[in-house]
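Sat 14:20. Reprocessing the chain from the morning session after the first attempt stalled halfway. Input below, unchanged.
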Amino acid sequence: METRDQLIEQAVAAQQRVMQAAQQASAADWQGLDLTMAQLKTLLTLVRRGPSPIGQVAEALGVSLPNASHLVDRLVHAGFVERAEDPADRRRTLARLTPAGDELVLRLRQGHDRFQAWLGRLDVADLAAYVRGVQALARAAEADADIRPVVEEEAREPAAAAGNGRREGSSDPWGSAGSGC
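Finished this time. Tokens:
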């Protein structure tokens, strides 16, 4: 019988193999991507939110309005985004993906699509077992996330008493507010 540690090692190794195979589907597109991380985040923000005023893009990214405008301008120059008049308020300009931007996002997501195809190849019993396992893992991850704020609060109290310079009420247990992490 395999030990818990052996099963964990096998699960991690299998997950790494799946992720590596999924990444190969879009590796060339990712490697050839000529965008900065900030531009990629801007692009993905527009994917999630749809056409958005620059102010909302700035808010979503946590950057200034001029910085968001510059990022959108770079994506416009690259052909992935366009500025368009807001049909609801002609005084506002919306940033939205162009067909080339939509195509790029689809190419970058090929690994996701391939993963769905692999799931479709599993027989029902294996798929049901996978779903049970991944749901259990999701519950463990969510429980960990639920514990974190309590741990942070407990960590803050002794640190504040020690006078480490962290602001009172800060939710950042490392005192690095504004680091973007």
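Confidence is low (pLDDT under 50) at residues 149-181.
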